[in-house]
What does this fold into?
Amino acid sequence: MKITRVEAIPFAIPYVKPLKFASGEVQVANHVLVRVHTDAGAIGVAEAPPRPFTYGETQDGIIAVINTIFAPAVVGLTLLEREVVAARLAKTIGNPAAKSAVDMAIWDALGKIQGLPVGDMLGGFTDRMRVSHMLGFAEPAAMVAEAEKMVDTYGIRTFKVKVGRHPVTLDTAVVRALRERFGDEIELYVDGNRGWTAAESARAMKEMADLDLLFAEELCDAADVLGRRWLVEQLDVPFIADESVPTPADVTREILGRSATAISIKTARTGFTTSRRTHHLAEGLGVPVVMGNQIDGQVGTACALAFGSAFELTSRYAGELSNFLDMSDDLLAEPLQIRDGHLHRSTAPGIGFEIDPAKLDRYRTDN
Ligand code: MUC
Ligand code: MG
It folds into this structure.
């Protein structure tokens, strides 16, 4: 069960509908497929999505850090030494998506060798998750039309609306239009990706006070320490920390500092090993968790689904598992299917997906 090689393969798959939000936009999934080879023959697979506007990583940077630092650090270890892997990767600062993909590919290889689904190895709480869909910036009518399509085609009934534009009424009008169109048929929450100040956020939340929001996420920057605490104190919905909590220590700081009252767990930035720590911490602190999406492809979504379905706390709310629907294609031999608002995780060993070799050949950019 020894790790013999780690590959980092760049690929590019265009989005049919780019996602736009306050901190950036994604037109093409320029991700990195990570493959961990073992002496048992099993190959573990995961993907790393570079998000320079969130964590500073780039596609080239992810490949470089894996090839030059992470691969030499883990080759020779066994798949059971995941804490040794974590300690060695932690010696390098940052690079959350690169570290997470290596970690999840190791779990995938271990599951394949053991003949066990990773979701069961992690906790096995349920076999499915409710899906929440993210609505990126557009005109109100287009955002309502997209939500209608998601309700009609996939049965999705939870929507996270991207906000953070100026004037704030651009966004509050969208949320109002969605509530008017669907009534209490849908759950709604908002994510500002730090686009507003604390005062703008407070004003927007007052304007939306009658719209029955489930959560508000990262409306203003956590670096505005007192402003954010002032904002969070006056809200009557949980305030989710997302990009401000890439590590368990950040979760502790934000929650105990009263700058957030809920957290987003993203396997794309904390893998399985650190996401498990973050989950236990959230449970101990008594804060709600939402499984977030780092604008993942289907590989990353299968990872989030495996983790989210493993625990009661991470599967209580709908998980953000649908961004892949906006991509023109993907790498899986059997695409993920959202039905009746749910994604069911595979019962296959490992994370539970197979890469289609022809698709990888088509989209990889290193050949
Ligand atoms: C989200 O929840 O913020 C947008 C930027 C990022 O890093 O993740 C996405 C979604
Ligand atoms: Mg967010």
In short: The two ends are 29 Å apart (CA to CA). The pocket of MUC (ligand 1) is lined by residues 21, 23, 51, 54, 191, 193, 242-243, 292-295 (CB under 6 Å). The chain has two domains: 3-115, 120-344. The mean pLDDT is 98.
